[in-house]
Predict the 3D structure of the following.
Amino acid sequence: MPNTERRIQAAPPVPEVLRYTAFSSDPNGGNRAGVVLDAGTMTDEDMLATAAEVGFSETAFLVPRPGHVDVRYFSPRAEVSFCGHATIASAVAHAERHGAGRLLFRTPAGPVEVETRRADDGSWRATLTSVPPRTVRLDADDRRALLAALRWSEGDLDPALPPRVAFAGAWHPVLAAATRARLAALDYDFAGLGALMGERGWTTVDLLWRENATTFHARNPFPPGGVVEDPATGAAAAALGGYLREQGYVSPPATVTVFQGDDLGRPSVLQVDIPADPASGIRVTGTAVALPPLG
């Protein structure tokens, strides 16, 4: 008689979704990110659905390969080419399980080297080296539309740091406010800014105030990802480093510090190291810490 026994194929295990906050050692600070350390069985639809369920601005999905790690990043709404805070979070999550060291992340934006180490106080720190940055002019019409959506005027801008669009894995308009008060009073047209950014392929808008030559305060609207504001944006910090080097506003090698998230009550600190070689990527360093389990 023929063998009519049915073979039942086991479903692949559901990957574990970790939750971290990056650019802070305090779970109440920094920018939260989801991390999946082995997403090899996940489809694009699985990743997007997981990112939406996690609800953070981005979730990173890692697939280990010989000699490198493939990484993709999803906001709750769409895939993004690169995410700095999720990279820092992923590197620390990996280091806590496998030890400190160097990894090569293959991202949609290009190869990104990450390095992890344990500080004397026991906290974990990670450094990413971005793809080579570049900066382009902000078109006059886009400048007017961007200011209108932000509800800013030309008089709100710092003339010493002219607007540009900067890239270090993702594109970010860079606008410097003339005063800290202007930066603090963020009240923008969410739908209008999101539509403009979607049309131009901008990931966040990097709004800045320069306290001194090496200290910046930042806010990053992120309506394309369904997020009003990012508390810490590593990709924008890397783009800022490229902008400062290319425009001659620092004398590299240089280190600048970006404070972000204070206006949200989620303080974050990003260290940006800018090498002298104009073809070199920008190094962004920060801490990361696991969040308590849900429930």
